[in-house]
Design brief:
43% helix, 20% strand, Transcription Regulator spoIIAA
Length: 121
């Protein structure tokens, strides 16, 4: 399965396939950014299961590096799926997710319906 461009409420979103390479560093993020830019996306939705475990351990700095790379290229990043097991194990990650969801750069959403609702505004 490949990444597909989908327009949601007039916003082009690159929907990443559930199966594919693990996203674990800035190089992997740049591959997605390149694909998204080529296709004209403004947001990239990545299934949570595609991220390396280090992404969910904030002290590794992987999440910060990846989020910053998307911000540098002015692309929104959506982590799509259930991350509750990770947030239950880490108060710092829970705070990070909450802060991200308050902004307009990075969102953690449970499913595509929640993403569609967020993009309405």
């Amino acid at each position: 399965m490949e990444n597909t461009l989908r327009t949601i409420h007039g916003v082009p979103v690159l929907m990443c396939a559930a199966k594919g390479g693990t996203i674990g560093d800035e190089r992997d993020a740049l591959d997605l950014i390149g694909d998204a830019t080529y296709q004209g996306a403004r947001w990239v939705a990545v299934p949570a299961g595609r991220f390396a475990e280090e992404f969910f351990r904030l002290r590794s700095r992987v999440a910060g590096d990846i989020v910053q790379k998307f911000a540098n290229y002015r692309l929104g990043l959506v982590v799509l799926g259930d991350v509750s097991a990770h947030t239950a194990a880490s108060p710092a990650l829970r705070d990070f997710v909450r802060e991200c969801n308050r902004g307009r750069q990075t969102w953690f959403v449970a499913d595509t319906e929640e993403l569609e609702e967020r993009l309405k505004t």
